[in-house]
Description:
The protein is an all-alpha fold. It has a domain at 10-66: Orthogonal Bundle (Arc Repressor Mutant, subunit A), CATH 1.10.10. The protein is 68% helix and 0% strand. The longest helix is centred in the middle third of the chain and has 23 residues, at 34-56. The protein is elongated, with a radius of gyration of 21 Å. The N and C termini lie far apart (60 Å). Zinc ion binds next to helix 3.
Amino acid sequence: MRPLEPHRDVGAYALGVLGAADTFRFEExxxxxxxxxxxxxxxxxxxxxxxAYARWTPPGVDPVAVPSPALLHAALDAVGGRLRARRRVRxx
Length: 92
Ligand SMILES: [Zn+2]
């Protein structure tokens, strides 16, 4: 059991990843905390987006795949090129 840290567990609670004891403690806190209630309501849309993303992921595709080094370098080069072009426009 972890020490009680108010407001910290709202994200984990929204995703349903807290253990039983922490869920119980957070729900006790939530009953009297308008801040966490508001955050939980906002996170409901995030949970729906994540669920939709999981549904849209084609079978056999890892939804959290790590990009290859070549793809990562190409993406960084593309972003760097755009930033350099913007600087040239501002300076020019
Ligand atoms: Zn709170």
